[in-house]
Amino acid sequence: MNMSLLAISTAGIVFLSLAGALLLGVALFILIIPFKPWLVALLSGCYILSFKLLSARSRKIDVMALVEAYIQSKKSKFGFSFNELEAYHLSGGNCQQLIAGLYTAKNSNIPLEVETAKSIDLSGLNLKHIIESAINSHNIMIENISALTQDSFEIIACVKATIKTNIKNALNGSDEQSLKDKISSFVISKIALSSNYKNLLSNPQTIIEDYQKAKLDDGNLFRLISLEIAKVDIGRDVGTEMAIKRAEKEKAYMQVSAEREKNQEELRQLQMKTQVEEMKGEVLSAEAEVPKAIADAIKEGRFSIMDYYKLMNLQADTALRRSILSDEKAKKSKEG
User: Which residues 6+ apart lie within 8 Å of 132 measured at CB?
Assistant: First the structure.
């Protein structure tokens, strides 16, 4: 009886020891190993060795995010190993975004190589957003594109473009503004080649005909799906404005020329008045010499006093006649 109790006690002790050791091992496993990620991977059918999870945590990696990316990779059959995803994460990549982007591209039948996807993600771009924009098109408006037709009328056009992201040019393609500039230049050149503005107003789609041949989206991040004229208006009549400005310039030139001629005429009149005054001065100077000459002639006996009186009478008679003539002219002018 005592031997049986001793045997049972020994077996119980061994059982308890083993159970305790097992419980201690489980506790240590839970404490040391990232248990939740390990359990999620196990239940998802994507078993991961515990020491790999421990190694990842020792590198301060978000183990749960890495495990979720690994499960997505396995479920999507992309074939990434846990080590590959860990190395990609350490290089600065976003594993979940990489897998999600590849999965979206695969389901949408968009050809996307893994290395291209990695390059896009490592460049800092949102891979999922780029793929979604490659699937779903969106519209952009280019307003107030202004140019002159050959008959000098201003045409103002508004263009609507439908675009999608071109994944091939995601890393080195030019941006949306560059595409807008190319479209604007194309529309301007088309308007400039038009000989009659009325043709554009009646059939505005001729402005963008053959736009595909121009390959406007070459080297751009966005692929041009369609292009259409949303609105077209007539602006200024530049030809008429230029004619008006030309007429105003000619008018101003004529006014300046007339003013110059007027000034020249006034200058000529002033010069003539100056000459007349100079001649009058010369006459007065000559007349001032007459009395002196007469006095000298009387002294020398070449001119008598009687001759002098006759000269004075002649001058007085001449002055009287001039006065009478001037009075008669004044009366006639008044009567007339």
Answer: 104
